[in-house]
Amino acid sequence: MKNKNIRPFAGLNFITRLSAGWIILTCLILSVCAFVVRTPLALAGLSAADILLLACLSKKPFDVFRRGGRTFLIQSALIVALYLIRYGQKGMLPGILVSWQLFLAFLPGIILLTCLPQNKIIHALSRVMPVKLAFVLSVSLNFVPLLIAEFKSIYEAQALRGARILPRELMSPLNWPDFVHCLLVPVIVRTLSVSKEIAMVAQIRNFGVSEQRTCWPHD
Q1: 3-class SS at 72?
Q2: First CA to last CA distance, the chain
Q3: What is the pTM of this model?
Q4: Calpha distance 149→209 (Å, rounded)
């Protein structure tokens, strides 16, 4: 019986032995490259690099990629629809390329947050910036998956209530007010609420009172 906890590309041990700082730098470079490359061939190569990094660092890369793939499909449907409305059939390929670039820009961040513990991220960032700033940046990065989960929850609830926010319905500008009032505004309100909760937790734990580091040490 195969051990499910073994990474698919465990043979590339040098990647798994990289320090948290090098992993963060690698993810940052991959995200920046997503905004630089333009051609389908370059995007395919960058996608392969992201997938390889995910397979080496994660014990369940397919689960991570599947969750990200759903977001990519929804994003692609919206962007391609807008391009089709603006440019007609000629906007199909540019719309796909733009949505592909955006997905590759966010995928390294998803890999980072999924595969690297928060204490290691804080410890790595604290070497190049003040500990307080490193803590805030780390919390902000971990806030993204939470925001995506809240967005999904609100989206599903509003769609069940009859809001016209399905991808095919958003192709009509007449339904865009529903997107703003039933989805965008509640997500913003929930984001502000979660931000307040995080600030309250940090205050309760006396964050910033001591000048010593506030990240948990690790090996």
Answers
A1: helix
A2: 32
A3: 0.57
A4: 32
